[in-house]
Amino acid sequence: MAHNLLKGKKGIIFGALDEKSIAWSTALRCVEEGAEIVLTNAPIALRMGEINKLAELCKAPVIPADVTNMDDLKNLFTKSMEHFGGKIDFVLHSVGMSINMRKGKSYTDLDYDFSHKTFDISAMSLHRVLQTAYQLDALNEWASVVALTYIAAQRVFPDYSEMADAKSMLESISRSFGFHYGLKNKVRVNTISQSPTKTTAGGGVKGFDGFISYAEKMSPLGNATAQQCADYCVVMFSDMTRMVTMQNLFHDGGFSFTGVSAAVIEQMEK
After folding, report:
1. Which residue is catalytic, options 107, 160, 214, 232?
2. pTM, whole model, 2 decimals?
3. Which residue out of 134, 150, 214, 232 is catalytically annotated?
4. Could you please report the per-residue DSSP string of 14-41?
5. Which residues, including other chains, have CB under 8 Å from residue 64's CB and lie 6 or more apart?
6. Is 181 among the catalytic positions?
7. Residue ranges of domains in the chain, CATH in brackets
8. Oxidoreductase among the record's keywords (predicted)?
């Protein structure tokens, strides 16, 4: 059900790969709520994914951009403003990748070249996106930037490896840049810490099905779905949350503040 929460707004969605992606669901919801969007992803992801299908559904252009390449990002924001005929109102950063995890390397045996790529793609990319927008003056007053994160930034999930470090950095960047962008142009920057979600990227984490089952048993409301996260992103992009910035917002059915649940105890006693 649409409420026109984003009527007249224009945004960029990073990271939609396929129908399992949170970015995919968010793109559809933004358009349903009245927004115009530009879709973007790395060139290799565009070849591997189904973004052209999403572009047709959303009537949105696709502008390739490697989030580690400043020229690509400048081109993305410049062409997006040309497409929209003005500045941008919201950005979703839904980007993350760990070669160490893909290669099955444990946290105590990291390949540091791989780790540098993890941090660059999964965390520093947010700084690059924000710095590019800041220097190009690409975002309207009261624009909203949201980056997706995970509670492994605060708690140890052994198989999440150095992605946990990357998410910690991502959250720190959102706070630090949120301060500067708030002063400059009242732009708000937040992270959403989502429940473990069955995306193509999430499926690469060792023991991921166990993550999901455990979180479901721990959360009084159960796990939040990709579609529900998309709803939350829409609210954060809307004018209803103008005074929310520099926050890490848990969207996990209560998992983040639950010590233990009866369902988990029962499972352990079996």
Report:
1. 160
2. 0.95
3. 150
4. E---STT-HHHHHHHHHHHTT-EEEEE-
5. 40, 41, 42, 43, 46, 72
6. no
7. 10-269 (3.40.50.720)
8. yes
